[in-house]
Structure to design on (239 residues):
């Protein structure tokens, strides 16, 4: 591979991994594949339902390039001091079979794909809870840009939030999420309730220049869910 391409891939992998870690406190190989735009979230869901025979079939690049990205991801995770945790991926009912990642089915490769990398800040108990979430779809990530002059690659517009796609950033209007409301992090109870009531949500992260990493800012949720959650909490704690 050309050295320049290699460097570029390195940056994309790290950016995707850092954003997923900020949003979830753990990173999975599938988060990185989605984050760098090689795996469509819809295709990932079909694979999770057992409708695709192996994941690499729906990853939009060749096998050597996937393997290169995964190697970069693992060396980043090890350098960050994250804890490796092997998890199990089972197709949803009715099949409940073990999901296969690789074309080859090689057990070593399968194990690498199944391994999640968990933030060292978390307690043992929290890590176990996270491991249970293994086969869930990744969180939809929305970025609060530092540069306010960014341009949507689909419509040429801009906005307060963007989603990274393989060709470039996209605005919320083009992704059909512009009706969602921003709920700033800080009120854990309100956040949990609003998220549970919202059919769609996204995690908002922003890059901190001083700390040189992505940090979770809050959630985008349906306004109705936010109003209901707020009302519920007001009723429980009047005055
Ligand atoms: Zn747009």
């Amino acid at each position: 591979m050309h050295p320049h391409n290699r460097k570029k891939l390195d940056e994309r992998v790290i950016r995707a991994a850092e954003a997923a870690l900020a949003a979830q406190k753990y990173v999975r190989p599938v988060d990185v594949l989605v984050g760098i735009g090689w795996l469509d979230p819809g295709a990932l869901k079909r694979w999770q339902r057992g409708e695709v025979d192996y994941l690499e079939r729906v990853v939009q690049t060749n096998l050597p390039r996937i393997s290169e990205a995964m190697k970069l991801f693992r060396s980043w995770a090890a350098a960050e001091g994250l804890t490796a945790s092997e998890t199990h991926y089972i197709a949803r009912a009715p099949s409940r079979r073990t999901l296969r990642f690789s074309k080859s089915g090689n057990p070593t490769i399968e194990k690498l794909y199944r391994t999640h990398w968990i933030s060292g800040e978390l307690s043992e108990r929290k890590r176990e809870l996270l491991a249970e979430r293994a086969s869930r779809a990744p969180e939809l990530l929305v970025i609060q840009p530092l540069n306010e002059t960014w341009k949507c690659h689909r419509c040429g517009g801009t906005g307060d939030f963007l989603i990274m796609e393989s060709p470039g950033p996209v605005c919320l209007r083009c992704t059909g999420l512009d009706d969602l409301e921003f709920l700033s992090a800080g009120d854990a109870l309100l956040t949990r309730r609003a998220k549970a009531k919202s059919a769609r949500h996204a995690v908002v992260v922003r890059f901190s220049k001083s700390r040189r990493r992505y940090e979770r800012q809050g959630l985008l949720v349906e306004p109705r869910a936010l109003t209901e959650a707020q009302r519920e909490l007001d009723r429980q704690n009047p005055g």
User: Anything to note?
Assistant: The chain is about 40% helix and 20% strand. Residues 152, 154-155, 157, 170-171, 173-174 surround zinc ion (CB under 6 Å).
